[in-house]
Amino acid sequence: MVILTMDEIINAICLHMAERKRIRPQDVEVELLWDEDTGYSAEVWTEGRSQYLVEANMIEAIMRYLQSEYNIRAYREQITLDLDEEITAQVDVDLQQTSY
To answer: Is this prediction's pTM over 0.85?
Structure first.
């Protein structure tokens, strides 16, 4: 199992949004949110505009981050967001099988 910290989730979203909008990751700001009614989301600021990402978008960013930074191919159903002291992502993968 791999656990991504809140900072890594923010990095994943920054890299994902920067690639999609063709801007630098440093030009992306992210705030992770959790609400009892709507669940996990993130508010993202790029180019002076605000946008909300739902949990599915956050997981997509995490999947791409795992592939690019850790060379781990994870599927959507293997990633779970969790809230304790901060938001983390638990990735249920067998690291021995993902190492190439």
So the answer is: yes
